[in-house]
């Protein structure tokens, strides 16, 4: 069946039409004519498998990665970077118009990433066996088919070098991939690195690793800390298990962000593209402005944004429900000598409601998960008298739906998209909201 691709989907797939029904075709680009096999069809849409490209896009390029199509993690690696940015800008534009009726002229040009390859400072890779050896890989989209990986071209080069060294040590000690029946073996290799130092977490079954292997891993140049996390739940969305044990080295990996040093634990969230994260923090600080009495950050995590705003206000309060992250943030503020920032362990909506009744909040910064702000948080913001909201989003769809609600009391100001993840369909966006 022949289909002409009219636009791109939110996951990087091409979208064409069969009898006015949208059909999603992974691997196809806008403007291409392709031959497909329909793999799924319901009353609202269909899915198709790309068989052959009949008319190629002039923007199509050969991907550097040999498993790009099977892996599925980098759908835009098949087109040049300028076209990737255009797709992301258009995805954001369409979402904001469709759900929030925002004037698209408010959307500024997307900020490109300085690096389009070798930019990720962390990997979280499943483990499998290939030719008798433990390897990392990825699962094909919507399947249990494991695709072994030799090199990932979006990981920082030093991170890839360390990952391969770790695998060599694990194979020398005959570590095997996880066995669901025995509940033994390695499930995931999680590795993060800054400034040539690395933090490794081995997510495994209920077993003790050989002491000789631990010593050999800790002896690798740049290995700063080594952890084991036991995770035996089969259907858990959480990679880490409830048990975390420091096998050796330092508890935290330290990241220098301007004048602030952030101590980061294995569970801590931090942006995967360090250079773009620095640019985003600077943008947030610019939008927040100076001479604020009180700035509040909801979903503050390890407190990076809150501490970056310490000079913008007399007082900054971060709210986070994860206890480990709050303890991490408090220690960070103390170690950096920052005394006008405090962190509260609480539900974000509940604590914001309490604060908004007691205090006058100048600026609220929210950086929610992909699911966006829940109804409780939206209701609190609307009922409050917070003067300005800075919304940091990684999902144009949930961002737009939230803005549709918030516009009842707030006007949308600047909209600043960032390309945090080149070669993927994801886009990060900062939105300024001013109370009417």
From TrEMBL:
InterPro entries: MeTrfase_TrmA_AS, NA-bd_OB-fold, SAM-dependent_MTases_sf, TRAM_dom, U5_MeTrfase_fam. The keyword Mitochondrion does not apply. Belongs to the class I-like SAM-binding methyltransferase superfamily. RNA M5U methyltransferase family. It is an enzyme of class 2 (transferase). It holds the Pfam family TRAM. The active site is at 394 (nucleophile), 394. GO terms for molecular function: methyltransferase activity. This is 23S rRNA (Uracil(1939)-C(5))-methyltransferase RlmD. It comes from the Bacteria. Its EC number is 2.1.1.190. Keywords: Methyltransferase, S-adenosyl-L-methionine, Transferase. S-adenosyl-L-methionine binds at residues 271, 299, 320, 367. GO terms for biological process: methylation. SUPFAM superfamilies: Nucleic acid-binding proteins, S-adenosyl-L-methionine-dependent methyltransferases. The keyword Transport does not apply. The lineage of its organism: Bacteria, Bacillati, Bacillota, Erysipelotrichia, Erysipelotrichales. Residues 1-52 form the TRAM domain.
